[in-house]
Design goal:
21% strand; binds alpha-D-galactopyranose; Ribosomal Protein S5, domain 2; 390 residues; 4-stranded antiparallel sheet
């Protein structure tokens, strides 16, 4: 990746000895979906797919940004950081630049080439990987460092404030602080976290990318965030000490059923139950009870499908297909939903047969083949040698 991006960097901006490189991984969330923005627990892993960028400082305040993925060149100025409708990928970069300008860390222009192999719009968080990659790169170019949580927070803020997606903190946190061979148990209310060794025995994770177009994802996403915020606001009128929905148990939430409309109640119920599932899942994982862990993945999917309503035919098809295979322990949609990837936990020895037969069935049903990615866990930026200052 590094060399491929460098070649394009040189092609567009010429050779320069001072250019620096950073990269950040995508993530897949094992369980704990759509609850990070309501103080829930999540369990992501970083994956061996990265967004990488080369850049060099300029002596003026101009920005020249090239994307290998979109084959687009964007030119702008630090003074004019405005939302770019024609260049969606640029907004993640400008958002990070804005955050670092606010902190008086960036006041220089730069030339940059960015690329990577995290598939876009697939629920593997290429956007957070891009934000975290750019934040790390600019910090290095500025010759400074920030504490890990500061980097994570500013990357998230870039997405909330500049891109306009009201995402939680899970993705940026994962890209920065996950560890290879582990899942990260993160309490999104307190940011307390711990690394849980990923002991799967004869099982492994496979991602099945639906390759479904998801053009309205950010508006659906923000709508879900608003709905659970509305549930919380109603509950807080009676119980102001509740800070997040995930603090409640099902019985407590039931107590507010009459004050919430049925859609809002179902959304809140998903949050409360999903949070409980994550904690159970971690216990199963630590005890090596992979089958029980897998059942929770199925339960999570059903909740996302029926209560949170963010699934789609393609994802449901893959989960139903998985249910019929005895080699599969569990499956569910992962990430924002409405398309993207399905995560499947299955026996290593069965991966090939499973892929072959799912491919045929999926093709028949949707007239296109899905894409398969075997999950290999990775270190987040903080633990990757090539990004740390020496
Ligand atoms: C997106 C957001 C995350 C999280 C997931 C759903 O990836 O960026 O903050 O809400 O969706 O779990």
């Amino acid at each position: 990746m590094r060399e491929e991006i460098k070649k394009e960097f040189v092609r567009h901006f010429g050779k320069t000895a001072e250019a620096v490189y950073a990269e950040a991984p995508g993530r897949t969330n094992l369980i704990g979906e759509h609850i990070d923005y309501q103080g829930g627990h999540v369990l992501p892993v970083a994956v061996e797919r990265v967004i990488g960028a080369w850049a060099v400082r300029r002596s003026d305040r101009c920005l020249r940004l090239y994307s290998l993925t979109y084959q687009q060149l964007f030119q702008g100025k630090l003074e004019e950081l405005t939302y770019q409708r024609q260049y969606p990928w640029v907004n993640y970069i400008l958002g990070v630049v804005e955050q670092l300008m606010k902190r008086e860390i960036v006041s220089f222009g730069f030339d940059l080439a960015v690329g990577g192999n995290v598939p876009v719009a697939s629920g593997l968080s290429s956007s957070a990987a891009l934000e975290v990659c750019i934040a790390s790169l600019l910090l290095r170019m500025a010759g400074t460092e920030l504490p890990p949580l500061e980097v994570v927070r500013l990357a998230r803020r870039a997405e909330n404030e500049f891109v306009g997606v009201n995402c939680g903190i899970m993705d940026q946190f994962s890209s920065y602080l996950c560890r290879k061979g582990h899942a990260l148990l993160l309490n999104c209310a307190t940011l307390k976290n711990r690394q849980v060794p990923l002991q799967l025995g004869q099982y492994c994770f496979l991602l099945v990318n639906t390759l479904k177009e998801r053009s309205l994802l950010s508006s659906f996403y923000n709508q879900r965030v608003e709905q659970v915020n509305a549930a919380l606001a109603t509950i807080q009128k009676k119980k102001p000490e509740v800070r997040y929905l995930a603090e409640l148990n099902v019985k407590e939430l039931e107590g507010f059923r009459d004050c919430l409309n049925s859609v809002i109640f179902r959304r809140a119920l998903h949050v409360v139950r999903e949070n409980e599932r994550v904690l159970k899942a971690v216990d199963f994982l630590q005890a090596g009870q992979v089958r029980e862990f897998g059942e929770l993945l199925y339960a999570s999917h059903e909740s996302l499908r029926d209560l949170y309503e963010i699934s789609c035919d393609e994802l449901d098809f893959i989960v139903d297909f998985s249910r019929r295979s005895s080699a599969v322990a569990g499956a569910r949609l992962t990430g924002g939903g409405f398309g993207g990837c399905c995560l499947v936990l299955l026996k290593k020895e069965a991966v090939k047969d499973f892929q072959d037969s799912l491919k045929q069935n999926y093709l028949q049903r949707f007239q296109r083949e899905p894409e398969f990615i075997e999950v290999e866990t990775a270190d987040g930026v903080y633990y990757r040698g090539n990004n740390r200052r020496t």
